[in-house]
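Hi! If you just cloned this repository, the fastest way to understand the data is to look at a raw example. We've pasted two of them here, unedited. The first protein comes first, obviously.
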Amino acid sequence: MKPVRPPTGAEDAVVRAAGCVLWRRGPGGGVELALVHRPKYLDWSFPKGKLKRREDARAGALREVREETGMDCVLGPPLPTSRYPVADGRIKEVRYWAAGPVSGMFVPNREVDRLAWLPADEARARLTHDRDRGLVDALLRVLGI
């Protein structure tokens, strides 16, 4: 007999994730954004990841930034939430915040092999997915730039 999967609840229909647009002031005083390269997907994106069961999105965003960049950060204002379909037909919903690093250092790992701090225009151009580019503009708006 084939196992029966329990009915899918609303919480199962959406893959919940969180992340940050990590930024700092560059040497010339301009804004630099941190992008991570994920070898599994061969893409450049902002640090983010799936939330653990019952994990608060803010806590998950801080955890994911630490895991992917090695940096602890302070969350700033929320940025637009990104929603897009994933391979299994569900929708992934990623809540984002602006964030500033306070300590830590990047060490390449299995999930993220490179970190790049780039000016906004260069970050926008390097991002692999169009859906991430609007987050650059959203960050600049909240920073008043």
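Ok, and the second one:
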Amino acid sequence: MTREYNDLIGEILERAGEKDNFDYKGKGKPLSKEYLQMDTFQHFQKIAKDAGYLPQWVKLQKEISQLVHTCETNNDVEEINKKIKKYNKICPHQLQKAPISLEHIEKYKNIW
């Protein structure tokens, strides 16, 4: 008993006379060992890093660092603390930072 099924690609190749003339040259290159050792997320992270992608919290960290180094007034401190609060919501837990104050700005310049 033969089983019938629809082989659309096979039929197209057969009509074109290419069904048995398939050349494997250049097809099926072996995957690198590095690719096989990483899971999908790690592979994505490597591609994103190679493409120059930075997570939002890293961009915000750099912005806060620049603001801390140019901070002079209480209004600047308030703006920075708002950004720090946003930063703490999106960064990994162990990288969260405390709000800053104008009195200890030199200490915070070293931290940021």
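That's it. A detail worth noticing about the second one: The chain has a mean pLDDT of 84.
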